[in-house]
Amino acid sequence: MRIQWPSSTLKVCIEGGELFSGQGSRCALHKRAPATYAEQRAITKLKQAWVAQYGLLCPGYKRAAHQVSTISQLSGDHVVPVVRGGRHGPMRVLCISCNSARRDERR
Q1: Of 42, 44, 62, 68, which has the fewest Cβ atoms less than 10 A away?
Q2: Cβ neighbours of 85 (radius 10 Å)
Q3: CA dist., res. 38 & res. 60, Å (int)
């Protein structure tokens, strides 16, 4: 008897650890819906208000606060991860590097 493997490569979902085939890094259960225009606008307003009050400063995540050179280096961070129901929950500002470090730690 010959076993034929699927032609597509299986990957591990970064959120749940399940095997899946397809594009991206999340399985269908954990795939995020794209941000709506209203959500993008809310993040932009959050970043603008932050910069108006504190300047181009990232408050840091497990490191000291530090300067960034442009507002585009700041990102909106969901306090409760989107995949755990935090899409409409509170947000804060972190630089892209700190936001990525926080995301990696939550896995």
Answers
A1: 62
A2: 10
A3: 26
